[in-house]
């Protein structure tokens, strides 16, 4: 089946008992056992629930993995993945990983003696130089948020394999429609399904896909032991969202391409970060490993323009956290997603105060450009 059809008919397609075309919401905690040790494959919904299983099977097929697991949030999914490691282990992480992933490593797992080393994963030599006996995995995001750094997934996976360590890819920004890390050699893919997979800003969810039976057994054990599972209703919503992923991503790509080019030509703007722009560092690597550029664009306003006025003057584009929904959103990384990082470090890594991030939705591109144009006009100090 082609990918577009798999989005709609993959995993568990409909309901066998009734013929319903959608997987029912099995809103149940427990299941009748017909005798000691005799059941229909389900005992308790933390361990297994048919609606959750449908989305788990679906994401596993979409990412071309061995098995998938659904969690109550992207962070619960990432926490489960980090729980595969033990005291004394170390992870190498990209230098501008999602803030929440950095926080859970720095403030939670560090207390359990699972450490991390920050590397520029766009530089393969730097990765190699930082691998020692303690390092058990490389955790990457590509493109990164908000500066859209591109890491070569295939090359990193190769280095990891040579050193018998795991490659974990947070594929939230691309989704399996545009980029499939397991096909490029990664072992584990994680998602904040809150973003593009859900697609409608109406649920919080996380997914993990692993590439082999051993990891699958260990991850299911962790999921059942720690219990951060996705509820049946949210599993249903996520399946519903995934059905339209291809058409939504095509539109996100198209709108973002037009807007990135528009922003690049505006005199109020200093720099635009979008992997689809030919001048973007990593553009060629991204093109090699993904079939589109996604809907997230960041840009820096020139001096003399007020980022607060810009953001507050937008009308259609909503000021808020998150990304990946059908509606366009704007956020201010320095005070929002990266607010916990000290000012000097933010300057050093490029999260300057005049940096703005857009998650381009699927509205009319004309309306979005008009909105941006009007806000730029009002942003002059
Ligand atoms: C949002 C996000 C997360 C965290 O997911 P939640 O669903 O908010 O818990 C992790 N990684 C990336 C890249 C994200 O954008």
TrEMBL record:
<keyword id="KW-0663">Pyridoxal phosphate</keyword>
<dbReference type="InterPro" id="IPR015421">
    <property type="entry name" value="PyrdxlP-dep_Trfase_major"/>
</dbReference>
<comment type="similarity">
    <text>Belongs to the trans-sulfuration enzymes family.</text>
</comment>
<dbReference type="InterPro" id="IPR015422">
    <property type="entry name" value="PyrdxlP-dep_Trfase_small"/>
</dbReference>
<dbReference type="InterPro" id="IPR000277">
    <property type="entry name" value="Cys/Met-Metab_PyrdxlP-dep_enz"/>
</dbReference>
<dbReference type="InterPro" id="IPR054542">
    <property type="entry name" value="Cys_met_metab_PP"/>
</dbReference>
<dbReference type="Pfam" id="PF01053">
    <property type="entry name" value="Cys_Met_Meta_PP"/>
</dbReference>
<protein>
    <submittedName>
        <fullName>Cystathionine gamma-synthase</fullName>
    </submittedName>
</protein>
<dbReference type="InterPro" id="IPR015424">
    <property type="entry name" value="PyrdxlP-dep_Trfase"/>
</dbReference>
């Amino acid at each position: 089946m082609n990918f577009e059809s798999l989005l709609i008919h993959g995993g568990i397609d409909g309901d066998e008992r009734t013929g319903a075309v959608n997987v029912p919401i099995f809103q149940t905690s427990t299941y009748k056992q017909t005798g000691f040790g005799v059941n229909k494959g389900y005992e308790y919904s933390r361990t297994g629930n048919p609606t959750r299983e449908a989305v788990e099977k679906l994401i596993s097929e979409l990412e071309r993995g061995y098995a998938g697991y659904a969690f109550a949030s992207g962070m619960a999914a990432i926490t489960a993945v980090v729980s595969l490691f033990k005291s004394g282990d170390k992870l190498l992480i990209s230098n501008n990983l999602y803030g929440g992933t950095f926080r859970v490593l720095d403030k939670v797992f560090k207390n359990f003696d699972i450490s991390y080393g920050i590397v520029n994963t766009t530089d393969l030599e730097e990765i190699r130089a930082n691998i020692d006996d303690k390092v058990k995995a490389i955790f990457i995001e590509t493109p990164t948020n908000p500066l859209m750094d591109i890491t070569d997934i295939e090359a990193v996976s190769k280095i990891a394999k040579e050193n018998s360590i795991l490659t974990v890819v947070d594929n939230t920004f691309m989704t399996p429609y545009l980029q499939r890390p397991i096909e490029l050699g990664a072992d584990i893919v994680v998602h904040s399904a809150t973003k593009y997979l859900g697609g409608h800003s109406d649920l919080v969810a996380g997914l993990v896909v692993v590439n082999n039976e051993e990891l699958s057994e260990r991850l299911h054990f962790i999921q059942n032991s720690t219990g951060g599972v996705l509820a049946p209703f949210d599993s249903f919503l996520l399946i519903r969202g995934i059905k339209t992923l291809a058409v939504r991503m095509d539109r996100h790509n198209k709108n973002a391409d037009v807007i990135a080019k528009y922003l690049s030509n505006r005199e109020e703007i200093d720099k635009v970060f979008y992997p689809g722009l030919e001048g973007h560092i990593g553009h060629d690597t991204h093109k090699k490993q993904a079939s589109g550029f996604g809907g997230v664009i960041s840009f820096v306003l020139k001096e003399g323009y007020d980022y607060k006025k810009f953001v507050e003057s937008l009308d259609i584009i909503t000021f808020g956290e998150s990304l990946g929904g059908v509606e366009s959103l704007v956020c201010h990384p320095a005070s929002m997603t990266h607010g916990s990082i000290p000012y000097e470090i933010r300057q050093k890594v490029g999260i300057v105060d005049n940096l703005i991030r857009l998650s381009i939705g699927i509205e009319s591109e004309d309306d979005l450009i008009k909105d941006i144009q009007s806000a730029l006009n009002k942003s002059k100090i």
